Amino acid sequence: MKKYAFNEITPMQYTLILFGTQVGTGVLALPRVLAEKSGTDGWISIILAWALNSVAGLLILSLFKRYPDDTMPDLLVRLFGKWLGKLILLPLLAYFAFFSWTSLVRGLLYVKAWFLPKTPDYIVMLLLTVPVFMVVRNGLRVQARYSEIVFYMTMWMPFFLLFLLSRGHWIHMLPLFKEGWWPIVKALPTTLLSFLGIEVLYVLHPFLQKKQYAVHGFMIANGMTGLLYLLVVIVCYVYFSPDAITLYNQPVLSLLKEIEFRFLERFDMVFLALYLLVISRSWVPYIFSTVFCASQLLGKQDHAVPAVCYMIATIVLVFLIHPTWNESDMWVQYQLYAAPFLVYLLPLILYLYVRGLEAFRGRQTP
């Protein structure tokens, strides 16, 4: 019997979890960030980041193809033994916990800025974490269903941006390669940060029912993310001038203010309220990965207790720190430093180690 058979998910749910994990609050400011670094050639950085992310994801999947029923905690223990494996797991656990924290804080700051400016931040965090806890504690299958429902509820949202293309000027996109390739390459680290989310494969892969579709699901999810980012960035570049777009903190929300209906005055507020559901799809897998790794580290099968402890810790930290936008940006920069090692370098090292181990055992076999 499979170790994780009780919580198995379908290929569709697997794809939508990956897609939901990659799309968070970063897309709201992405056009401005790319414009500051590479002008209106920033959309080329998205294509390059998509390609690099695809290679990294395929590398992770090729590693788990050799051990299809193992999560990353299981694999580390298998390869390096109980104590060393758990020691190597600690940085990954810290990464998941920190990424979950920063994602929740970004969501908290958006809610405070747009909806509840006078509500204490720890109360807002409580309102955000309670429903997340209810989803996380019930296992991956419930999370998969939640991700599926939210996707079908919100899949119409990107298409509203197309209404503004008729008011834009495509001349803003020209000429291509205004300052050469260097600004485009310089924007790659920031763009790759927006594509983060594939690292949940470390935990997600053994739960997939039909593992022969793992590569298909990943490529579809990563492609959907790339297409969404391209749509958002290109619409913003076409609508705003190359200089004006850098003046808006979140160009996407400023863009939504331009959409008007006779029966609805502030479409951007409605959009952002619904977008919180989209953002929550990135919180849930990261928090689940955090508490799953913590329970594996402690040798426990039930991750409900680590989930409760993590939720309480986030609320207490918000009460003590009262995070600001500047602090949130600083924490995002820390992610930018840590992600290349744990998302791109770690699977490469493990893959080469496994291949070397297989070659060594092959030579030892008479």
TrEMBL record:
It is found in: Membrane. InterPro entries: Spore_GerAB. Pfam families: Spore_permease. The chain crosses the membrane at residues 12-30, 42-64, 84-102, 122-140, 149-167, 187-208, 220-240, 270-292, 304-322, 334-354. Coiled coil: none annotated. Keywords: Germination, Membrane, Transmembrane, Transmembrane helix, Transport. The keyword Cell membrane does not apply. The keyword Transmembrane applies. It is a multi-pass membrane protein. NCBIfam families: 2A0309 (TIGR00912). Belongs to the amino acid-polyamine-organocation (APC) superfamily. Spore germination protein (SGP) (TC 2.A.3.9) family. This is Spore gernimation protein. It comes from Gordoniibacillus kamchatkensis. The lineage of its organism: Bacteria, Bacillati, Bacillota, Bacilli, Bacillales.
